[in-house]
Amino acid sequence: MELFKSETNFDFMAWRKPSLVISAILCLLSLAIIFGRGLDYSMDFEGGVMIEVKYEKSAEIADIRNALEAGGLKSAVVQSLGTATEYSIRIKPEDAHVGAAAAEAPKPEADKAAPAEAAKPESAGKTETDKIAAEVLKALKVSRADASIKRSDFVGSSVGEELREQGLVAVLFVILGIMVYLWMRFEWRFAVAAVASEIHDTLITVGIFALTAREFDLPALAAVLSVVGYSINDKVVVFDRVREIFRSSRKGEPYEILNRSINSTMSRTIMTGLTTSLAVGTLYFVGGPALENFGLIMLIGIAVGTLSSIFFANPILLWLGVSKQDLMPRSKEDPELARRP
User: Fold this and answer.
1) Mean pLDDT on 226-254
2) Which of 17, 256, 51 has its CA nearest to residue 135?
3) What pTM did the predictor assign?
4) Mean pLDDT of the chain
5) Which DSSP helix (H) or strand (E) runs through 42?
6) What is the pairing mode between strands 77-80 and 48-55?
7) N or C, where is the chain less crowded by C-beta within 10 Å?
8) What is the DSSP string of 156-172?
9) How far apart are alpha carbons 105 and 121 in whole angstroms?
10) Please, which residues bridge with residue 247 across strands?
């Protein structure tokens, strides 16, 4: 099945300069949004209260969310604990109109010599957690009298900070691994173009997500990593076609061959994007609040990645000066190979 005929020869590379300028502007705007406005981190990264509730009879997650929203706890995250009667509720202290600063207040120097005084912040934190748990239970009992609290714990922001750092390290590690792989598989120009495309796609995707003012949680982080993997997959297909056409053509300028590569993979690029969007679109529209962020980021990333495969990656290759000599197989008479044991 082909959406575009194999002999199609649309001149995509003619748009390389405007597309690179637009991409640079979008990347700068995304950086300004991410570091200026910032991401609205969820309790996964900011800390908060984890409450486990139990019902005598089965309950629905939607009903629990509705009860919490009616009680003013609109940002609470509800998840099943494996049964229809036990659920976990995660909520930020400020969303419950209760401050949790006392739970993480630094201990004064004078308190180090007084154990009784040093224990006060911990007691205060426990009190604030109990207040939030009581507020949650009150909201739940309005609709279901059989609700009860199994336990409640406070998660400090230090845990969330560690998760943020590990998430950033994971993204950088993935991009570095992709660069090394492409350097070995193709040639250094392809590695540079691929990494530039990955940074481009990730920045713009996260920047657009930040504009939605949604909470950035662990599923959102997983989606960002998935976008990196999805995006590079499409670039590898296009790059492989570039190498194939370079090697099989006796004549042809890089400009022409890059255009032919984009045109010959266009059907595959669009069809892959559409079919993947159907899957992640289902997560966004009917997956519930726990999966909405994952689906939304994937939808944004697929659109951005598809466009960058056409208007960004190959123009970068042309700008770097890719040529047929760089992609031809090395002969056994190559001096570099001859020196190897």
Assistant:
1) 81
2) 51
3) 0.73
4) 78
5) none
6) unpaired
7) C
8) -HHHHHHHHHHHHHHHH
9) 7
10) none
